[in-house]
TrEMBL record:
One of its GO terms (molecular function) is ATP binding. This is ATP-binding cassette domain-containing protein. Keywords: ATP-binding, Cell membrane, Membrane, Nucleotide-binding, Translocase, Transport. Part of the ABC transporter complex HmuTUV involved in hemin import. Responsible for energy coupling to the transport system. It comes from the Bacteria. InterPro entries: AAA+_ATPase, ABC_transporter-like_ATP-bd, ABC_transporter-like_CS, P-loop_NTPase. Residues 3-249 form the ABC transporter domain. Residues 255-274 are annotated as: Disordered.
Length: 274
């Protein structure tokens, strides 16, 4: 799915003061992969929610495949939302549910009412759930109960659910918060590879900047709800990142220090030394 934002301004319904997000323009081609970075409160999750048609812009436009979702009828909007998947950083998994059911729940938005009710008792597509879990090294948990999983396992179940949903636009909010570095690398690999294989557009907010640089071809920096940069990863220099996180340097871990000579591009290989 391709997407575009035009002069988009957005404030949370309960919020006062300046908009949480104010973006002039953003365009993504179908199948592109974009990481969103920026300090806490920069507006990363807000942008993701705007793209997921979960927050309505105060002004400006969002276009998904050329159509403004907020100009669609309720039925058309529902159909469009079934093509998107927003994965929150803590997946909402019912504690007593089996992992297989939790993963296959990713398909519910595309099902009719009866089909979806039936699937809660008689899961269909178990092999697909198994294959998605396998990508996150969790196949042995297929029939485990969700409340018997660790926080990191639950987070990976949430990502497996996103893959099983096979959306055309996959929006992932901070997927690595509960994962150790090795699991985090594996999860990013699985996520980006699967999105590529499925032809899905992938937008992911990332707290771990080196991980974002290592896995995404394009990186967008947000600061105070505004665009700081939107660049191919090779042009995202340590100096740019240090400027982005200038007021919260503690959030920018694992980067080489800025140098006095002209900045060289930060390549993915360089970031692996973390
Ligand atoms: N539900 C809400 N109601 C009111 N204001 C909100 C709400 N959620 C976020 N905000 C405000 O919107 C701004 C952007 O928040 P957002 O969650 O998008 O930031 P973020 O970059 O994702 O932060 P973090 O990295 O800490 O998750 C913040 O100033 C925040 O206080």
């Amino acid at each position: 799915m391709k997407l575009a934002l035009e002069r988009l301004s957005l404030r949370h319904p309960a919020a006062r003061g300046a908009p949480a997000l104010d973006l002039d323009a953003l365009q993504l081609a179908s199948g592109e992969q974009l990481a969103i970075v920026g300090p806490s409160g920069a507006g990363k999750t807000t942008l993701l929610h705007a793209l997921a048609c979960a927050l309505r812009p105060r002004s400006g436009r969002l276009l998904l495949d050329g159509a403004d979702p907020w100009a669609l009828s309720a039925r058309e909007l529902r159909r469009l939302r079934a093509e998107l998947f927003l994965a929150p950083h803590i997946p909402p998994l019912p504690p007593r549910q089996r992992v297989v059911t939790a993963v296959l729940a990713g398909r519910l938005p595309r099902m009719g009412l009866w089909q979806s009710l039936r699937s809660l008792f008689y899961p269909v597509g178990i092999a697909d759930a198994d294959a998605a879990l396998e990508r996150f090294d969790l196949a042995d948990k297929l029939f485990a109960r969700v409340d018997r999983l660790s926080g990191g396992e639950r987070q990976r179940v949430g990502l497996a659910r996103a893959l099983v949903a096979r959306p055309r636009l996959l929006l992932v909010d901070e997927p690595l918060s509960a994962l150790d570095p090795a699991r985090a690398r594996q999860a990013m690999q699985a996520l980006t590879e699967s999105a590529r294989q499925q032809g899905a557009t992938l937008v992911c907010t990332m707290h771990d900047v080196p991980m974002a640089l290592a896995h995404f071809p394009r990186v967008l920096g947000l600061q105070g709800g505004a665009l700081a940069f939107d660049l191919p990863v090779g042009e995202v220099t340590p100096e740019r990142l240090q400027a982005l996180y200038a007021r919260h340097p503690e959030e920018l871990a694992g980067l080489p220090a800025a140098r006095d000579e002209p900045p060289a591009p930060v390549g993915a290989a360089r970031m692996h030394c973390r």
